[in-house]
Amino acid sequence: MMSVSSPEAAPTRDPTYYIADGNTVLQVENTLFKVHRSMLIKDKSTFDSMFSLDAYTQNTEDALMATNSEGESDENPIRLHGDKAEEFSALMWSLYSLPAEIAYSMSLQANDLQLIHLARIAHKYQFRSTEIWALSALTTYHSNAGGSPSVQNLVQITELSILCDCKALLGAAVAKWKRLLGEGRAVAVAIGVAERLNLRSLLGLAYYSMMLKGRDVWDSDPQLNARQRIRLLSGHYNLIKLCEELPSCPPRLTHDHSCVRKGKCKNAFAALWKIILTTKEGGLVGQVLKVQSADLPAKVMLAESIIRAFAEGNIPAIDLSESGEIHEKCLQIALQATQDKVKEVQENLVDWFSDVV
């Protein structure tokens, strides 16, 4: 027996933006909007050129053929394909809202999803000032420590920042991702987003965060694919090797011009670096450095904090045997070199997670 498909439901009028004295009907998905054409052509949007072309076409055709022009009735609306009703509703909200409603959207109680919809459709139809304003409102909201979007919204915000080339919003979004990763949340989602959008720094941190969870988690997480699991294995192996070599590879030290010890300071710093990063029982930080064998970022950050304590006099000088003490100004340079090492490890973390074990 042949099945009969049910007829498509008739479109319904939007409860807010089907305006009685509007003069243009548009259909987005299965929703009808009736608004004022003068509002749609604001900001020299795409609608401005579209309606100008309509007017030219109608003026050059026979008048009898234009008795029921597109957009003049529910039966013959202007159909916007590829848009969502909630996005078009957000655009109408921006065009018809009162100043108090607009001001509210800049507060911590803002509806970030509405702003996402607005920025995306404003970008598509070239409402330039509206797009800039919506992106600014989103950046302000998400730069605030109190703004806490859902993971789904954060994905959309990150995609939007790339679509609109908004570096400020991207920075705010990445900061939110880093907070989630620090809490061990949405790690596989972050890997997927960072790979798809080619966000290098976020991708390295996401792989690193997943690596720390352990292989049992990698193998059981349904959001990770085989290639991503290979990259995790590769990263784990590479970082273990780097950590093994780390005590013998101190950051490069350049001497202060007032230092007369020259090579001795370099040797003293190398000795101090090795003592700090010795993880064998009985080493200086053997009891402090309780981190995973592959946790390179944690190890260099710990080294930086200890060298800072030496430089600020919070830890007394230690006996570096034949190397002697490090000149005071050279110690400050050593601290800066260690801070640069921390930054280098963080920025290049993704390089160690290759596709080949």
From TrEMBL:
Coiled coil: none annotated. InterPro entries: BTB/POZ_dom, SKP1/BTB/POZ_sf. Residues 22-104 form the BTB domain. SUPFAM superfamilies: POZ domain (SSF54695). This is BTB domain-containing protein.
